[in-house]
Design goal:
The chain is an all-alpha fold. The protein has one domain. 77% of the residues lie in helices and 1% in strands. β1 and β2 form a beta hairpin. It is globular.
């Protein structure tokens, strides 16, 4: 079989998605032939699949450009976003292997769905056309709906899946209506062609209100996926009810992929309309930070508390997003990388400590963990300190770069952007309460006599070690990743 140069380039530029889907298919084919005791091996097959997909990013890097009639774009921006979502999937697969054994849910389709969802996230990150982005969004979402309800015997898991499906369908409808309106106003769904058409219309003295309304509806649809307020209502219930490794994936991968798509739409398709969308981002950022942090304060369930924490962090990312500069884009990308390590790591600790049926999720269950399992307590403390934003962690530099990028754009947006940073700093202080509360419980409360944490399995320990090293690396030696983020941001804007 002979492939033309264009076909080979197309395969290179879509290599991660192809590999993830192939491994997902292989897992589904192998599943019926493996006994129940050997199905955990499929988890390692899925992990190898994520490593192969990560390695294939080299092919994208060496053969950058458009794929499949310019529907997909492989550039440094897309490559960076792919690395984040594939990394999140790899860690979640490792965290799920023993969890599925404990819950008697060891099934090949779980890992296949994770890989299919990750492939959809990759399409989101690289889409250069709005309907292609919709395909990626649905590919990711449908897999996620099923994964959220994978604990079929648990009422909360069924509730999680149903809520996610119903509200996700509404969000998808908003996104599609937005695409239709943008197409009606501009005659194109190509992201890189929208702004030239709008420039021509503006030059003739006419900016179609339909295009702005379309952008607003797209923001509603994508705001749902990143769990930004006021589109966050489903988030805490879905995150709490879903299997905890799935929660780790939902809180990281889709958020990173959707933010990547939002950056491409807002910065490439609608950069000239920044004076419209800045205020939407500004308002949503403030609301998201306050809703997430204030709600997290009153939670006693650690898993639900981390769910509200995820909402708050979407607000911090929106602060950098509002900068509307190349530095803002690089700050968003760096934050997403740091956030993935610390948030996935935190949820994997909860995965392990929850034990069968996720019975031990209250703060009181973490009492005395510092003496019972010192290494695990140190890891969890590191992730919580990073989420809080303490120095020498990736979370600290993520917030620092986000706030700095926003302040650097004060000439364009005046006091509004300065007040946004001040509000973000206040929210960081608010967040300290509930993060430190868990740490105090681990080191200063008396251990519960009714609960004994089990030994950390190899797969979970490996995932936690990777997440901890990544968190420290981004906090102490951020230069290489920061340079990669800036190069990715430049490739997005300077087109």
């Amino acid at each position: 079989m002979h492939f033309s140069a264009e076909q080979v380039s197309n395969l290179h530029r879509l290599a991660p998605e192809i590999i993830l889907c192939l491994f997902g298919i292989v897992i589904m084919l192998l599943d019926p032939f493996l006994g129940r005791a050997r199905q955990r091996a499929l988890g390692w097959v899925a992990f190898v699949g994520t490593l192969a997909a990560a390695a294939s990013l080299r092919l994208m890097y060496l053969d950058q450009g458009y794929a499949y009639n310019e529907l997909i774009r492989a550039d440094l921006f897309s490559i960076f976003a792919h690395a984040v979502v594939i990394g999140a999937a790899a860690l979640c697969v490792l965290g799920a292997i023993n969890y599925l054994d404990d819950e008697n849910l060891q099934r090949g389709e779980f890992y296949a769905l994770v890989l299919f969802a990750t492939a959809g996230m990759g399409i989101l990150a690289g889409a250069n056309e709005l309907l292609t982005a919709f395909v990626g969004l649905e590919m990711s979402s449908i897999s996620s709906y099923i994964l959220a309800g994978f604990r079929k015997r648990a009422t909360k898991s069924n509730e999680s899946s149903l809520k996610y499906f119903i509200l996700g369908s509404f969000a998808t409808a908003f996104f599609l209506y937005g695409i239709a309106m943008v197409y009606g106003a501009t005659g194109t769904t190509r992201i890189d062609q929208v702004q030239p058409v709008l420039d021509q219309l503006i030059a003739s003295g006419h900016l179609p209100a339909l295009s702005i309304l379309g952008l607003a509806l797209i923001f509603v649809g994508l705001g749902f996926k990143v769990v930004a307020a006021p589109f966050h209502i489903y988030g805490p219930d879905v995150y709490e009810g879903a299997p905890t490794p799935v929660t780790a994936l939902l809180a990281s991968g889709p958020k990173a992929a959707t933010f990547a798509l939002m950056l491409r739409i807002f910065y490439v398709a609608f950069p000239g309309e920044v004076h419209f969308w800045f205020w939407a981002i500004w308002g949503s950022a403030i609301l998201t930070m306050f809703v997430g942090n204030l709600a997290a304060i009153v939670q006693s369930n650690v898993k639900r508390m981390l769910a509200y924490s995820s909402i708050a962090h979407a607000g911090y990312i929106l602060v950098a997003f509002a900068a509307a500069t190349v530095y803002g884009v690089s700050a968003v990308l760096f934050y997403l990388a740091a956030y993935t390590f610390m948030k996935v790591g935190a949820f994997l600790v909860v995965t392990h400590l929850g034990q069968q049926d996720e019975r031990h999720l209250e703060i009181t269950d973490y009492a005395g963990l510092g003496t019972r399992q010192p290494a695990l307590a140190v890891c969890f403390s590191l992730f919580l300190f990073s989420l809080l934003g303490l120095p020498a962690t990736g979370g600290f530099l993520g917030k620092f770069f986000a706030f700095q990028a926003a302040l650097d754009s004060h000439a364009a947006f005046g006091p509004a952007i300065v007040w946004l940073v001040i509000i973000a700093a206040i929210n960081s202080v608010i967040g300290a309460y509930y993060y430190l509360r868990i740490i105090i419980a681990m080191y200063f409360w008396e251990p519960s006599k009714d609960y004994t944490p089990s030994k950390v399995p190899l797969a979970v320990g490996t995932a936690l070690a990777i997440a901890a090293i990544g968190t420290l690396y981004l906090g102490i030696l951020p230069r290489d990743v920061l340079h990669a983020a800036f190069a990715a941001a430049t490739s997005l804007i300077a087109r």
